[in-house]
């Protein structure tokens, strides 16, 4: 079987029944190879477009380390000594979540529908994961680093969160729930115990 000589000057070499004479070669590239090149370049364009749209318009971002903490003492100091939900304003909350073997603290986060929640997560021991179902909240939790993410909960319901980095025998027990409740009181301020205390603290 004769090989295709891509440096062939057309003066000879290919026999007519190769189907690879000079008229079927563009810039000396075999038609099949040319199609694979097109497919490859097309896929690169699709991947680039996918990442661009997700990053620029859908809020998918690499979660960088928001700040660094000392994992050996992080739980001894504010705000990590009292993880949980804090109200910043109507419809605007922040929550500090500690992921450790083998639980999340807090285990339940309750906010009224429409609330924007900024989440800070850290770990004092091992590497864990933090993923809230049906949202784009999904990060690794690395000891010594604080991951920060925001999400607006627009639908009433329960959104379980889980650890998705295997962290030992109790890994499967690492879960919790975001409860998004109807904002039915008329006033935008929900009656949450944490909110009252944080409001008082904020007023000081
Ligand atoms: Cu885990």
Index terms:
elongated; Immunoglobulin-like; single chain; 5-stranded mixed β-sheet; 204 residues; 2 domains; 19% helix; binds copper (II) ion; alpha+beta; 2 helices; 6-stranded mixed β-sheet
Structure in words:
With 204 residues, the chain is of the alpha+beta class. The protein folds into two domains: 19-60; 65-191, Cupredoxins -  blue copper proteins (Immunoglobulin-like). It has two helices and eleven strands, in the order αβββββββββββα. Strand 2 and strand 3 (92-100) form a beta hairpin. 19% of the residues are buried. Copper (II) ion (CU) is lined by residues 128, 163, 165-167, 171, 174.
Strand content: 25-35%
Mean pLDDT: 81
Question: What is the subunit arrangement here?
Answer: single chain
How would you sum up the global shape? elongated
- Which CATH architecture of the largest domain? Sandwich
Count of β-strands: 11
Total helical elements: 2
SS class: alpha+beta
Q: What does the radius of gyration come to? A: 28 Å
Following the backbone from N to C, one meets helices and strands in this order, namely HEEEEEEEEEEEH
Q: Just give the CATH class of the largest domain.
A: Mainly Beta
End-to-end C-alpha gap: 88 Å
Helical proportion, percent range: 10-25%
CATH topology call of the largest domain = Immunoglobulin-like
CATH superfamily of the largest domain: Cupredoxins -  blue copper proteins
Ligands present: copper (II) ion
């Amino acid at each position: 079987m004769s090989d295709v000589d891509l440096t062939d000057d057309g003066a000879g070499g290919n026999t007519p029944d190769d189907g690879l004479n000079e008229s079927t070669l563009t810039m000396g590239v075999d038609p099949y190879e040319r199609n694979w090149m097109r497919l490859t370049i097309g896929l690169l364009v699709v991947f680039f477009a996918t990442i661009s749209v997700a990053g620029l318009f859908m809020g998918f971002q690499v979660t960088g380390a928001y700040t660094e903490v000392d994992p050996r003492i992080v739980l001894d100091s504010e705000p990590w000594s009292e993880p949980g939900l804090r109200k910043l304003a109507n419809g605007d909350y922040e929550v500090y979540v500690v992921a450790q073997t083998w639980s999340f603290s807090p285990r339940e986060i309750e906010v009224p529908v429409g609330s924007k929640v900024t989440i800070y997560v850290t770990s004092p021991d091992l590497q864990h994961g933090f993923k809230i179902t049906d949202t784009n909240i999904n990060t690794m939790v690395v000891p010594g680093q604080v991951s920060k993410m925001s999400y607006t909960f627009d639908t009433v319901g329960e959104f379980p969160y889980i650890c998705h980095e295997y962290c030992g025998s109790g890994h499967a027990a690492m879960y919790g729930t975001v409860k998004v409740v109807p904002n039915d009181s008329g006033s935008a301020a929900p009656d949450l115990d944490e909110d009252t205390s944080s409001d008082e603290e904020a007023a000081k």
